[in-house]
Amino acid sequence: MNAILVPAGADLITYVASALGGDGPDFSDCLVVFPGRRPGHHLRRALARKVGGSFVPPHILSIDELIQEIYEGRHAEPRPDLESVDAVAVLYETHRSLPHPLGGASFLSPDGFFSIGARIFSDLEELRIEGVEARAVGEVQPLIEESIPPRSRDSLQTLQLFYKAFYPRIEALGFSTRSSRYWEVCSSIGETDLARYGRVIFAGFFALTRAERKLFNAMSPRPATLFVFQDGTGMREKLSEVGIRAVTARDASERPERPVIRLLQSPDGHGQVFALNALLDVPDDRTVIVLPSSDTLFPVQRHCLSRMSREDYNISLGYPLVRTPVFGFLNDLWELIGSMDGDRVYVPRYLTFMLHPYTKNALFSGSASATRVLMHTIEESLSGSRTRLFVTLADIEENTEMFEQAALGVASDGTTATAEALRSHLHAIHHATITRLRSLASVKDFADRCIEMLSWVHDMTTARDHPFFSPFAQSFIESLETISRSLLRDTSFEDPRSYFTLLRKYLESRYQRFPGTPLRGLQVLGSLETRNLRFDRVFVMDAVEGVLPQAGPEDSLLPFSVRRALGLSTRREQEGMEKYYFSLLAAGAREITVFFTDNGEKTKSRFVEQLLWELQVRDRAVETRRYVRPIQYRINLVNRPPAGIAKSDELVRRLAARAFSASALDAYLRCPLAFYYSRVLGLSKREEVTGEYEKVDIGILVHSILAEFFRPTVGREMELRDLDPARMGATVDSQFAAAYGSADTGASRLLFSQIQAHLRQFLESYMGPVLQEAPVTLIAVEERLQRDWHGFSLMGRLDAVQRRGINLCVIDYKTGHEARSNAINFKKLDPDRRETWSAAIGSLQLPLYLLLHEMAARPGTPRAMFLLLGRARLNRSIELPLFADQDEADRELPRLQGVILRILQEIVSPEVPFSPTENRKRMCPSCEFNTICGTRWLAQ
After folding, report:
1. Domain shared by 879 and 864, yes or no
2. 767: closest CA among 707, 718, 838?
3. Of 271, 424, 619, 683, which is least surrounded by CB within 10 A?
4. pTM
């Protein structure tokens, strides 16, 4: 075999150009084959420079293109390539016919089988291209059975059955695969296949499959055939393994100097990108940014490449389609449809989809502004009734008040739109997206409808103005068209989610390729795209373990021991290939800058460790710190307490004129500054439909149930028959339906049952003993009181006022179970010391209610208590009285009233600003205004 080994630092392309011989201009009788397509562009440029004018180029192919060309030349009607989705369909037919299907019942549906089917197809293709016979798969099992777990043995037997059936089946269907074409061509290549070429050069190969070895062996007797390998880590061992003796090239120019190596350690990926941006200067085609992970592509594009013109750089990197915004749009729709209950949409999923940038920017009269107003009006409307988790599209479209509100919002934005026009617009959006995918007949029907929907997104929204939308959408449409004409096209599913699952699993193996010019501008490449090329300046991002080299379990059904026995590549060989190409990239560069993160969660790549070792050996150094430059952020860690807010005269007048509730006083007591944000400025946390039942909503519901249940007994002495559990059940049913709708879903049914059981226990275990202990007369439920007191207006709503024997009881229901947040510690409270108030007082609610009740001039000495309904056992222990006895009440109530008065005076005092709480560690972490105050860093 005529084999040449060029040095690691040499330019392989330049050597191949010189090996073609002559000065041109006609190289048409020459064939050059590389592992990939990219080196061919560089070879044509090298020949142009060599010739110095126009020329007829050689035939330059990748190895895949060579196999395809020979295969097509042999067949008048070559069998088309089998798409992966079709391969899975064929394997699925075999799978269903097996007496013991792989995975039992787990993979009996096409969508459930797809992922495992794709892995089986990959394994079969590898076995085929390596020339492994089906019988050999079974023969290795007894040799290594002890080291194979039982489940893996079953998988191995099943894989053998798939192997025997698969290739005859696809041949009968008129298809071929990459590996079947490879094996056919490489195992029988003859002189006639390449007779028209005088000179044939195979260049840049590293790891050879058995099919490629057969091809090389068949071509080696031709005197005009040359095999050009490049020295690098592991290359000599590879050549030795396959029995190739290569002569070291003497006429290949290698870089005389060693590359300048820079190692930059960053705390995170952001630091890597910012440091790269600082190092980039004038873009040229001799500079490459290597991205081992596609995660860094868009940060690099946004922060580093955006300052360049589009002609100044070229991106040649596959980006996963499942990471694109188009997939996010489809996924949000899939999640919505999959969560529907009949005709009702799940509100959180519905809002997520409607607020997707593509959906909420649907064009209305040529602009998207009206749609954005409409969508956010819908969000406010549904969030306002966030207890209703399911709603029909018809209910939304018939909400006249909502559309009128949206029309007012659109008008304020300078656009004219009637409520009816907005209703029609929303109906059209529903029809083009949700309704379109509700009823599906088959996989083909699903794929075709998805294509129609993406076409609607392109034509009827601003999505086409978004960066990369068009190429992403085109790739999705191509994938959907492949599915539409696949062997699965007539398959039907009962569950619509199965169609989405099938598409998602197919898209997991699909990538977006960016168009570009490999010979012009700064190159942005993946690790594999750099093979056979040399660059002056190299920037390698994300050089961490797990990324460079890639890590993870073998995506194969074949255990490691079986792969070794069959002569298949393992993770070790894959890592060896990555190491080889990385070593060539470094050896051919004038300077190489490697970025990595080493922060405890991530650690630098073993390739970086190798570079460090080489530097240490070169300089005879022990320490490595001198070679690694840390990227550091300039961070000011000084946390200043928030400043107080002074009160203007106008604000003081407005505060003095307002009515104060117990919740307002408690808010001020916790933090005067938070009181200012919430009670003065009116700021509040944005209402969201989370899909979970909020504690505050449950509390409101329980209050309404108890008020409705006890209201018929107001004004008379209660009897045991008033505690009818059936009437309580009916009350819970009606109030729950009014708040949450029907309790026909899992979460709502559970909540409904819990409330039913808990309130029945409240009647039996608490109210029953209370009635038996003394006569009880209900004086009022949910009584609203407002009184003037010392020039201030006070208001409150008393949950219940009862007369128990000779005592009056002011009762407030709490759906929590903690007493600490509501109780008052009189031992810690000193009314004359302001700093003790917030620490000693949990809530001023009951003292204020007693004050309002006193001013209502009802006879009798009132008592006040909380009823902690959130406790597991609802007996007399749920009572949390404000005072332990009457003596404490007589002593402490005037003092509490004095505190209330001083708080009110402090609120309206112009000399006292709204200051932050003194107990920031306890109050700030859970405060909704900690972002405004800058206290989010505090931890409880």
Report:
1. yes
2. 718
3. 619
4. 0.80
